[in-house]
Amino acid sequence: MKKKYIERQISDYVRKVSGMYPVVTICGPRQSGKTTLARHLFPSYDYVSMEDPGTRLQFENDPRAFLELHPAPCIFDEVQNTPTLLSYLQGIIDEHNTPGMYILTGSRQMELQETITQSLAGRSAMVDLLPLSYAELETAGIHLTRDEALYYGGLPRLHAEGIPPEIAYSNYMRTYVERDVRQLINIKNLSAFETFIRLLAARVGQIINYSSLASDVGVSAPTIKEWISMLEASYIVFTVHPYYSNFGKRLTKSPKIFFTETGLVTSLLDINSPAQVARDPLIGNIYENLVVSEFLKARLNAGLRPNMYFYRDAHGFEIDLILDIARRPLPIEIKSAKTYTPALIKNLQQFYNNDVTQSLTPALIYGGDDLGDFQGVHVTSISAVHKVALSEA
Q: Is the CB of residue 9 less than 8 Å from the CB of residue 301?
């Protein structure tokens, strides 16, 4: 069966930077569609997978001969497996220095950025590709209800090939643990790590309490911090920091934790159907995770910094998400409810009226239909997240 290609919103940005830099490095979690995107956008390029053991051995035995066999333009896939490749590419790039020579892909953020900084600084555009967004699925004619979106998530293969979520995410987790966890960090107790990631899934949208997690898992707080850093490095989770007008202060306070894929969250929570999602006590948190990840995708797909924060004051007053747009806050509330009530926008109105920094028009993303501008707030659904995310870009 031929796979269905789903057009990616990031395509225009990738084409743009490939005309400006000799290298474009596409980073992202496993199975986010990096290889498919690269080969779709650059069909005339040679393609080499550095995940293949034979290919890696060929490179390691004679790097220069290997690169003569695979001259530019070329796609090198999963380059984190052979970091020395970038050092050899540097010499070729400096000699020819033409745009679009190489497209690189990789699944481990921290390692790639460190290697790029060492070998290809100033020569490579960095692009983050996350799984399919809600907007991309809708453009492809795939229309999901609120609960289906939470359950299915955005793994391209799942939608292109019709793989059931319970199979896709179970295998995704097993592959991740076997490949990335063991390579990134020496975890002696995989059972404890699997307990940790399930507990983390039950805490989506919450401020990370390292001591509480450590106590529940039976490891130290520094170990929990190390494991979360590893999950971030491989794009499994991401964090959102609190909003302060003092930028330095934002980075010193505990962040909230979110998963890149809500489908993985529901799998880790043993949720087995969209109907079960709707009944789950954590639906509000999971929906918030979905919407926040959609904002992240929209910003990255346009080549923009995420600039995403949350707001909570000393009295517990909270705004779910703040976009920092040109040093002006855009406050956003996220509610899973399908029925609009004035109570849903109460916090937004209070924040907007009290904010002295001239907030942008607040937005409510809820589980119901788009109502447009309503009582000083833009009330809309998840379908409009990408428009809200880019409205003041």
A: yes
Evaluate if residue 116 carries a pLDDT over 90. Answer: no
Three-state secondary-structure class, residue 49: strand
What DSSP string describes 165-225? HHHHHHHHHHHHIIIIIHHHS--S-HHHHHHHHHHHHTTTTSB--HHHHHHHHTS-HHHHH
- CA distances to 59, 103, 142, 201, 352 from 25, in Å: 19, 6, 29, 29, 39
How confident is the prediction for the chain on average, in pLDDT? 90
Kindly tell me the number of DSSP H helices and DSSP E strands found in the chain.
20, 13
252 has a pLDDT exceeding 60: no
Contacts of 178 (CB under 8 A, 6+ apart): none
d(CA 293, CA 287): 10
Q: What are 308-326's pLDDT values in tens digits?
A: 999 998 888 999 999 998 8
- In one letter, which amino acid is 101? M
Decide the pairing of beta strands 124-128 and 23-27: parallel
pLDDT over 80 at 338, yes or no? yes
Among the residues of 221-282, which ranges form H helices?
A: 221-233, 247-250, 262-268, 274-279
Is residue 359 within 8 Å of 320, Cβ to Cβ?
no
3-state helix, strand, coil split of the chain in percent (to 5) is 50, 15, 35
Q: Phi, psi at residue 314, to the nearest 5°?
A: -65, -20
Sheet with strand 318-325: strands edge to edge: 256-259, 237-242, 308-312, 318-325, 328-335, 363-366, 377-380, 372-374
Give SS3 for 246.
Answer: coil
Residue 41's closest CA among 21, 24, 59?
24
Provide the whole-model pTM. Answer: 0.93
- 205-248 per-position pLDDT tens digit: 999 999 999 999 999 999 999 999 989 988 999 999 999 765 55
How remote is the C-alpha of 324 from its chain's centroid? 18
Question: Is 348:337 a contact under the CB 8 Å cutoff?
Answer: no
Is residue 360 pLDDT above 70, yes or no? Answer: yes
